[in-house]
Amino acid sequence: MLKHIRKFAVIVFFLIVILIVSFYVKSLNNEYVLDITVANTFYEISDGFVYFGRPTCPSCELFKPLLTEVAKEENIQVYYFNTDYFRNNSLLTEAELKEIFEKYQIQQVPILIKLVNGSLDSSFGANFIEEESGKIKEEIRDFVTYKELPIEYIPHYTIVIILFIISILIIVMLFLLKNKIKSKKIIFILLMTNISTIIILIFSIKPMMDYLEHNNLSKDPKMVILLLMTIVINLVSLIKLVIMYNKFQKREDGTEKSGSDTISEI
Fold first, then answer.
1. Confidence label for 99 from pLDDT (cuts 50, 70 and 90)
2. Same domain, 216 and 237
3. What is the DSSP string of 177-242?
4. pLDDT tens, 2-13?
5. 47 HSE (CA, 13 A, CB side)
6. What is the CB neighbour count within 10 angstroms for residue 109?
7. Domain ranges, residue 166
8. Strand pairing partners for 231?
9. Are 126 and 59 in contact (CB under 8 A)?
10. Domain tally for the chain?
11. Where is pLDDT greater, at 133 or 50?
């Protein structure tokens, strides 16, 4: 049984490594400020950030590199609406541009807006000089990272917290009450609980990573740290439980053997 548990632990470890590495590689391949080249792309944006600017605007040329740096650091994708590009290539009429500017309250560039369900949620714009770049960069960061805790975030935390508490209770019981546990059945129940917890955690990694990425929460490490801590605690508990289970098994085997010898002697 110990060999099977070891194989299971190794498989769990490699699965976790593969999932984390794939998530990291995916984040490296992100294009953080994406040019909008056709009007339909803009109209299809329901949620996210859109930056309005143009190369002929001095403040825009200072703003865009700062926005790109922040987007990369915070792992956030921003769409770039180049007003010169749409005018010069006649992709939108002046009437259509005016309608967009009025709908999203674009009165000057550079301006960064946040869309939620296709509607304007908030905006941030600034005309500034190069000496103010540091201040503006932090203001951009504050704007793109500010969010109320989404309702959907609570269940994800709740599941991991419950599993974390269960894991802590198991490992505390093992280390503080190990001399008082006299039944192999109890060890077996704890072992199955431990393995079930690990399986649930494994299946929750991918959805959790996708959720964090989709909601631009990848820079919020609390949930990931809690998840990894829970996995580590469970692996430690698993090893401890297997050792205890084998000791009980050997003790029972020894008792049976001793009993058989006594009967033979009689």
1. very high
2. yes
3. STTT---HHHHHHHHHHHHHHHHHHHHHHHHHHHHHHHTT-TT--HHHHHHHHHHHHHHHHHHHHH
4. 566 566 666 766
5. 6
6. 22
7. 2-24+151-265
8. none
9. yes
10. 2
11. 50
